[in-house]
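Problem 3 from the worked examples.
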Amino acid sequence: MSVERQTGRRSGRRRGLRMLLWPLLVLAGIAWLLVAQAQEDRRQAVLLTVQDAIGPATADYVIRGIETAEARQAELVVLQLDTPGGLDSSMRSIIQAILGADVPVATYVHPAGARAASAGTYILYGSHIAAMTPSTNLGSATPVQIGGGDGLPGMTPPDDEDDKANGEEDAGGNGGENGEKTDSEDKEPRRGEDAMGRKVLEDAVSYIRGLAERYDRNADWAEDAVREGYNLTASEALERNVIEFVAENVTDLLEQVDGHEVTVDGATHELDTEGLEVFQLDPDWRSELLSVITNPNIAYILLLVGIYGIIFELANPGAIVPGTIGAISLILAFFALQVMPLNYAGLALILLGIIFMIAEAFVPSFGALGIGGLIAFTTGSIMLWDDPNLNVALPLIVGVAVVIAAFSIWVLGRLLGLRHRKPATGHEEMIGMVGTAKEDFDRSGRVWVHSELWTADTDRRVHAGQKVRVVGIDGLRLTVEPIE
């Protein structure tokens, strides 16, 4: 009976636990549904911040930011912009990402005193919503021709005499009040100074006009900003239908765009931005690292350090340090090169030049390989990047070329000096050494040379203790002559 009672008690306990477990599971399910619903109710606007020249790192940051906003099903992406311009390739990548996004993108020139110059103007025109803060400006969108500029800014305003005269009439570069053309500017529009200049300029004009017409913005002023480098303030831009909104801050912008209709992926979408939570997406370590190493000069140095590190490691197996530094530098350089417009012909010339200069130390070319390698290296460095606005600083190229040439000359001189030095090992080392005769002999006897006892031959009489000089060696026998 006791066994039956114990079994009944255990069964009762199990039933009690099951009865308690089911309510807990139901409560957990309800809590999960409430959390999921709360997550869905957290409607967001993703805020991206760009406060530098437009480059590969900026493009990577903005593109991944838009992808993050799409994954979070955000209502709006706000691109807070303050830039002096940038690379054409990076600018177009950003605009393509905006045009192909499933979420509306509002480019907002902020804070006060910021600008959307050059490439920033194109991005502003290519966004679903264009907005500015008071005391900001946009414009100066004239592209730099191939061979011009100093790198990242990428765009510069015109600088010929006629434009200087027009600029004197209006310090804003607009030629008149609110960007209106004056009589002195009623002339043939700028077409470029040569064939390449015309191609670059007309391409830029067509591109920005297409963006303006897509969103029904002022295409004529956009063309003037490209051809003549005009600028507008925030209020002037709003008045001339270049932008849609002037807002004091992001909160004010979200309030103004509430209910505004935009076209996203061919469909009209009415924005519902009331009560949106602003999620600020800062650049991560990848973007920060990319922004440093995508500097043309830094990427160039990393590439050279990597190449020479590997070469030194192969020449001295087991050194470890050169190979380690070289491998890390090469990986960082390749990481940068994958997002930069690399000219493979330039890279090939750099590698060929390095190989030639190293070969000069081993091949008796009387300087032909060294000079050819130096020319190939310098030429490849100049044409390394396949973008007219992306160049390695010429002083850096010259400095590196001089250092490499000096190092090659030093190595060549050392090798030539070693050829004239007396051998330090082997049978050749014995020739010319001075020893001491251990006994008297006329033809053959024993001598003490190089801390060793040798059998020596001679053609003259040698006395015990007399100094002798080695003049030949045949196997284990020396040929010596007495020193008088």
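Problem 4, a separate protein:
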Amino acid sequence: MLTCPDIDKGKKAIVFGLDDVLFPKKDYLLQVYYLFAHFLEYMETVPPAKDLTHFLKTAYEHHGESGLFDRAVDMYGIAPKYRENFDRLHTAAKLPLKLLLYQPMLDLMSELNEADKKIFILTAGNPTMQLNKLKHLEWNGLDRLLKVYFQDELAAKQLHPLHFLLVDNGLQASDAVCIGAGNWNTALPDGGEIDLIDAARFIYPAGS
């Protein structure tokens, strides 16, 4: 498992992703499904919230987010009109529980701050939903030390997100390193590229 000393000391800035990088994305989604199930039980009395919550959790774990509402419609005959409520909860839900950072990431960001490194978050996806996630995270004071950029918002303005982040903060590609999950393209318009480290290498012990 990597720790702060494994990051090149010459790097001035660390750019983190959000989902499954700083916290488990499922922790947000499962609370959304819980809220939707209880909302639907209140409105229609059926299906029981406990049953629908269990169904949505299991379907998500086996099939992912795509088509999840349609699976629930097929299973329980939920009226299609409730899709709007389902979608709205994804972007504006007031979660009953705080979202917790992965402990290794909390430790890493704290150490980076002590080392006087700049910390950024560059997150993809619906900006309203991503902002809602950020608001529900328990930052332990770190939120005052970082700067957030929304990839989709910048791309909609015909801006290259990583390039914009660098220019906005007076950085060169060699000054930064990205810590992300999945297939994060860190190539820049000028042909350069920012170093990338898989977040899992910080979160999980080697071989796990």
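Solution to problem 4. The chain has two domains: 4-23+101-203, 26-92. The chain has a mean pLDDT of 95.
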